[in-house]
Amino acid sequence: MEVDRNVKLLTNFEVLQLINSKLSSKKKIRSQQTLLYTSSKYLNSKTPCTVQSPEAIHAFSRAVKPFELSKVELLMLINHCPSTQVELSVVMGDLLVCISPAPNTVEHQVSRLMMAAIRKNPKESE
Questions:
Q1: Same domain, 63 and 17
Q2: Per-residue pLDDT for the chain (126 aa), expressed as one digit of tens each?
Q3: Which of 9, 56, 62, 76 would you label with 112, given CA atoms 20 to 30 Å apart?
Q4: Could you provide one GO biological process annotation from this protein's UniProt record (predicted)?
């Protein structure tokens, strides 16, 4: 077995796209079907990746570039889309924890960008 050294971090959105393409493929491998189905069910019901788009993710990545987030922090922000200051502080552990979110804090700015770019209210899209 050969190991591919071209390793890349994937967002939940990209994983869901891959799973959906495998599920809709005519070439189905029986041993993979349960894993694909349960993974798809989890991603569709428990993560915000169903309301994201490649354009929105790319726009968000560009918007937070000035904050010099690590790749892991950016990936966690995209995958989890934290909506409260507490959730955001957990994801971005290296930032100073602010008791009250002032409009000029990094957390407030990232949260505002997230709400505008990648976290859409599912009720709005109906």
A1: no
A2: 576 777 789 999 999 999 999 999 888 888 889 999 999 999 999 999 999 999 999 999 998 888 888 888 889 889 988 877 778 777 776 554 433 355 566 677 777 777 666 665 444 443
A3: 9
A4: transcription initiation at RNA polymerase III promoter
